[in-house]
Amino acid sequence: MSDVIIPGTGDWHFGVAGIVYKPFITLLEKELGLIEGTNLFISYYDWRKPIRHSAKHYLYETIQKAKEVSKQKKVNIICHSMGGLVSRTYAQSFYYKNDIDQIIMMCTPNAGSPPNLSYWTGGSLPITSGEKFNLVRLYMEAYLWLLPKIHHTNELTAIHHYFKGLHDIVPSHSFGSYLLCKQSSNGYTPIPYDSMKTQNNILDNLNSKPKKLKKRKIAVTLIAGIGEETIEYFEVVPSSSKKDWIDGKVINALKTEAGDGNAVLKSVFAIDGEKHVVKGTHNEVLFKSFGIISEKLEIEDAILNDFYLLNEEYCLLLLKGKGKIDIFENEKNCTLNPNHTGYYQLRINDLTCLFLSEQILQSHSVNYSPTEKETICYIIIRNSERLEKTVEITPHTPYKILESGGRFS
Fold first, then answer.
1. pLDDT at residue number 209
2. Of the four, 65, 119, 130, 388, which is 20 to 30 A from 397 by CA?
């Protein structure tokens, strides 16, 4: 997050995603003895932009800075999810400076990921993903709700104009046919990738040169998560719209447990490299890969204690309104300090983003106090639950959005 992404959010930082990445950086510093700014560098990038843009204007510049500060000729890159595609794009580019020793990729969808096709062509994932909390889906749905409100346009136009990086992580040719067109009682007909209107040109190009990383003597380690229900195929029906669902409207998903909840095993392993499998979610794999990372960096492995284990039970609230949100602790009759662990709040003009752990929700309620009569709209995303409301309220009585225990009002 930064002013580049959403004006008013300041210099580069992890934003809401800090719930995952801050503990991971702490892990690298405390357990492996790395020092940020000395031999550990974070490459923030504008994930809304095409991956080629992020590789050239963010990762490349971070690598040059790291080389200059450390006086080293080469770097090791540790990357997660989309970050692995940014790393590959630079490593396989024409402007590559022969300055990468190895790339460690965790949960990188090297052949793309089906849910992103649904978001790109329809603006949503109109099916439940199961009862288990999925942090990536929460982030995606929240941002796509926010995007058209920031830019004052419809959802699909906002996505295609302001979130072009999303198109670079839809499935590619090497993923195989993943859309199954429903043919009434006659079953399904797979839609060939070559006949689809939505294709991933950047991954098709990267994957068409499978030996390039090896030729450039870059060691590749691939770490995939398994054991979580992950979308592998979509059931679709034809769409009459020329703008929405151009390859078929998603009505159902077929899932596999050979994935981390977001990236399937075959996509992570779609390129050559040393392969590892870890049981865990898309975010848990970061922490469960610690031993592999320390071995690859040739740093003595430390014992991973429970401090670094991720508790993925959170509720996200996005609200558009001029008033004030308070997190009220009922037993102590007081409001919660914004710096409290498990509580993240971001305010930009009349938009508020609130991220609360389930532990806090059990004993707190969420109240909204307007300064004048106004109409507010908000969305709450929690596990498989989703509530969206538009409410007209008055300034006399605080409006309760969530009851204690996380119950919807």
1. 94
2. 388
> What are the angstrom distances between the C-alpha of 85 and each of 136, 245, 358?
17, 25, 32
What is the pLDDT, as a whole number, of residue 234? 96
Report pLDDT digits (tens) over 219-244: 999 999 999 999 999 999 999 888 89
**Distance of alpha carbon 225 from alpha carbon 109, whole angstroms:** 11
pLDDT band, very low/low/confident/very high, at 276 (cuts 50, 70, 90): very high
Residues 113-161 pLDDT 10s: 999 999 999 999 887 655 566 888 888 888 898 888 888 899 999 999 9
Q: Please state, in angstroms and as integers, the Cα–Cα distance from residue 321 to each residue in 12, 108, 175, 318, 349, following that order.
A: 26, 37, 43, 10, 9
Query: What's the pLDDT tens digit per position in 60-72?
Result: 999 999 999 999 9
Other Cβ atoms within 10 Å of 61 Cβ, number: 12
Neighbours of 342 (CB within 10 A): 16
**Quick one: which of 380, 377, 344 has its CA closest to 360?**
344
* Residues whose CB is less than 8 angstroms from the CB of residue 295 and which lie 6 or more positions away in sequence, other chains included: 301
Q: Distances in Å between the alpha carbon of 315 and those of 16, 110, 355?
A: 12, 30, 6
Residue pair 192/175 in contact (Cβ under 8 Å)? The answer is no
Residue 195 has pLDDT above 70, yes or no: yes
How does residue 338 score in pLDDT terms, banded at 50, 70 and 90?
Answer: low
Write the DSSP assignment of 109-173 as a string of letters. -TT--HHHHHHHHHSS--S---SS--HHHHHHHHHHHHHHHHHTS-HHHHHHHH-GGGGGGS--G
Q: What domains sit in the chain, N to C, each tagged with a CATH number?
A: 1-311 (3.40.50), 314-402 (no CATH)
Residue of higher predicted confidence among 186 and 300: 300
Distance (Å, rounded) from C-alpha 230 to C-alpha 386?
20
Beta bridge partners of 365: 328
| DSSP label at residue 70 | H
Distance CA 22, CA 35 (A): 14
Strands across the sheet containing 334-335: 334-335, 324-329, 364-369, 399-402
Long-range contacts of 45-50 (CB under 8 A, 24+ apart): 45/83, 45/86, 46/4, 46/5, 46/165, 47/82, 47/165, 48/5, 48/162, 48/163, 48/164, 48/165, 49/164, 49/165, 50/164, 50/165, 50/167, 50/168, 50/202
Q: Do the beta carbons of residue 251 and residue 182 sit within 8 Å?
A: yes
